[in-house]
Amino acid sequence: MISEARFPLFRLRRGFVALLPAFAMLCGIALPVRSAEDASIAEEPRKLIEETADQIVSILARVDQPSEIRVREIEEIAYDIFDFTTMSKLVLARNWRKLDKSKRAEFVREFKRLLSRTYGTRLDRYNQEKVEVYGTQLEPRNDVSVKTRIVGGQFDGAEIAYRLRKRKDRWRIIDVVIEGVSLVSNYRSQFAEVLNGGTIDDLLAKMRDKNFTIDEEKTEAG
To answer: What's the CATH superfamily of 31-212?
Structure first.
């Protein structure tokens, strides 16, 4: 079992930790991939996760390079593979519809910064782990979840499921479940707590402050 940890912005629920290439299952009943047609649908997202995991582990293994270089490379991968707009809609839920175009753009920008920085700042945890893709399953809305597990290191056996959605002929990650805890659901509940007692401007201010703190910490470490 992965121990309880924190993201830079809010306290994560038990079992969630920012580890390796992890950053999926939402509500609904998932269907295992069984038919040849199902397997064909799942083939492309599975290959994407396999290639991305190999790429990130390769970057992490270059321990002779400065951490800021590796972090920057991992952030670039995160920017490319995650669908931050869809994730923003999911984490804000009904609050998304209340925002005008400019506020939506600002939220997506800050949420993207937050996740990509979190995604690339735990290099100290790397200990020669590998990522094994062991299954896929179909989800509602024609999404596909790709199931992986960590092999080796202090998180040996930890399971991570990536949920991908195809938009404009391209598969991208819209959620990640680590040891049964969804990144989207976790942020949705914690953002809701802030919004229940405040405004979107309050939430954006907290996100900007955390992103600034992360950048400062990275500068000092460098």
So the answer is: Tgt2/MlaC (3.10.450.710)
